[in-house]
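Quick sanity check, Hpt domain-containing protein:
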Amino acid sequence: MPRINFLRRSSAHFSSRVWTKWEIWGETVTQVPILRPSEDVSVDQDELARIYIQMDCAADDMVAQAIEELALRLPHAETLYQQSLPGDLAACAASISTIAARLGMTTLARVAGDVTACCASGDPAALAATLSRMIRLGEGSLREIWDLQDLPI
């Protein structure tokens, strides 16, 4: 495994990407990309249609309230993680899962359930990765449902 000399680092900017120059055992590596994960999100439009058929006039209020709850709970989950409160984070993720499932955000609901499981497992790396994925999915799902509902962001 190559050793990286962290003391000899310089960086340059090329078209909105940051490339870092590292010296690895006398060899210089000039292009080290920074990874920016992205998620494909989808909202089950059939589930939303079912909500509107069953609830009729009250559906708009219920969907708007659920969107607002998600928009508040996602950053709250991140705050709970930063404060090292796994029990509270698990409860928050469980509520995100419930709300997401109700709105047809099945992937977000599943990943939020995974965050809850990671809180119980005590694996900090898995929790950090899964929470980051939940936040990405949540933000993308909110954008998607706002587009579907024609709500302003």
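Posting the structure with no commentary besides this: Confidence is low (pLDDT under 50) at residues 1-19.
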